[in-house]
Write a structure and sequence with these properties.
With 310 residues, the protein is of the alpha/beta class. It has a domain of 215 residues: Rossmann fold (3-Layer(aba) Sandwich), CATH 3.40.50. It is built from 10 helices and 8 strands. An 8-stranded mixed sheet has the order 3-2-1-4-5-6-7-8, with helices on both faces. Strand 4, helix 4 and strand 5 form a beta-alpha-beta unit. It is globular. 42% of the residues are buried. Its EC number is 1.1.1.100. GO terms for molecular function: 3-oxoacyl-[acyl-carrier-protein] reductase (NADPH) activity. InterPro entries: KR_dom, NAD(P)-bd_dom_sf, Peroxisomal_Beta-Oxidation, Sc_DH/Rdtase_CS, SDR_fam. Keywords: Oxidoreductase.
Length: 310
Amino acid sequence: MSLVGKVAIVTGSGRGLGLAYAQELARQGASVVINDVDEAVAAEAVASIRSAGGNATAVVAPVGPTATADQLVAAALDTYGRLDILVTNAGVLRDTVLWKMSDDDFDTVINVHLRGTFTCVRAAATHFRTQGQGGRIICIGSPTGQRGNFGQTNYAAAKAGIVGMVRTWALELARAEVTVNAVIPVAATAMTDTVPFFAAFNEAAAKGEEMPPFARRVLGYGTPKDVAGLVSFLASDAAAKVTGQAIGAGGDRLQLWSHPEVVATAFQNGGWDYDVLTEDFGSLFGNQQQSVGEKMPDLPAEFQPAPAAQ
């Protein structure tokens, strides 16, 4: 059930979660195509895998354009002769509230996360179908895409869209024995360094210290390595019957997210006009309305951010 002889592409794998995924895939025996926009960062990632006895090469290019997706697949085939696994991890943030978000803020995030996932999966899926030996596609989502988050219109849209595409691709690629799943990670990375709620835990991670049980158990919050095992599992033959799923990982916690389901249904002869809805909506659905955003538990006093200096 190891990944020996397999070849993987991991986008956005120069650092953070992507690097952890690439290193774990290599540790399990896969040869890895690293991707980053920074040549020095990509080279360092490749060196970290090779120094541990693994195989890695790099493609330095921004994810989003079809040309980059084609270049990534070509690098796997030219260097290692095949492709078995794609992990779409590349991403950026441009956080701000709706009324301050520019077109560029929105388009940049959508292009990297959503279009980049689409173009890379399309290129890999096309090859998997030609290769005729199945394949594994793992797309990285986010709790924001599942629940929403203040100030992240663009990111929420992209990550929700990724999970929607995953469900569709799982259907379309089933006959080719290609599995497609979404991973919903929660981990200390550069993307969470600016969140005061996580400050104490990120500081511990940066120092190489063990995160406290409150972080790992209550919050399901850990390091990138805590998510990498799930990615490698989904890339393996052991996960051949797992497809179309959204699976969360972080700290000591593993979660299977549900697909959206109808929670209440009502019927009205002749349909629902304004007057009937005004009178009846509250009694029918008032107690069934769904929550938005993630409700975080209260931080224990020892993990509270220090008050700002006056």
